[in-house]
Specification:
By secondary structure, the chain is an alpha+beta fold. It has two domains: about 110 residues, Sandwich (Immunoglobulin-like), CATH 2.60.40; about 30 residues. The protein has three helices and eight strands, in the order ααββββββββα. It is elongated and about 80 Å long. About 15% of the residues are buried.
Length: about 150
């Protein structure tokens, strides 16, 4: 666990920077992101993040809202993130031009962002075609020669 002096060294006026893994490691980054999400959600008192899960390629939150609210995360909003709200596809918001966010309605909302860019699907299809070609073409030439 980081002490206050080391935390003061990595927090800047505009971002968080540190030497990995000496000053900044994955568990600390996860705690910073969770704290930021809770802070932003509680800022106006309209919504509260009561559960937060962070895994590679997956971010989940259970939110309790008194009224319509916007939830912001510290996860960069890069292409490929897909959001579901209460199990249904929903449009993710871009907060401050850079971070993932979501609008929630009064009550309890379950949010889940999954990172699944279309380029990955294309990559898997191209890999499959390449493997079929790598095996199939030599076999086809071999049969032609016989």
């Amino acid at each position: 666990m980081a002490d206050l002096d080391s935390l003061a060294a990595i927090f800047k006026a505009y971002d968080v920077r540190g030497v990995v893994p000496d000053e900044l490691d994955a568990p600390l980054a996860e705690r910073i992101g969770a704290a930021f999400a809770r802070f932003v959600a509680d800022a106006d008192g309209a919504a509260r993040v009561v559960e937060l899960g962070v895994e590679p390629g997956r971010l989940t939150a259970r939110v309790e809202a008194e009224s319509r609210a916007v939830i912001a995360t510290s996860q960069p909003s890069i292409p490929g993130w897909r959001l579901t709200r209460n199990g249904e596809a929903f449009e993710s918001l871009r907060i401050n031009g850079a971070f993932l966010g979501a609008a929630v309605e009064p009550g309890v909302s379950r949010l889940e962002w999954l990172y699944a860019p279309r380029t990955w699907r294309w990559g898997w299809w191209l890999l499959a075609v390449g493997l079929v070609a790598a095996v199939g073409i030599p076999l086809g030439f071999r049969r032609l020669q016989q």
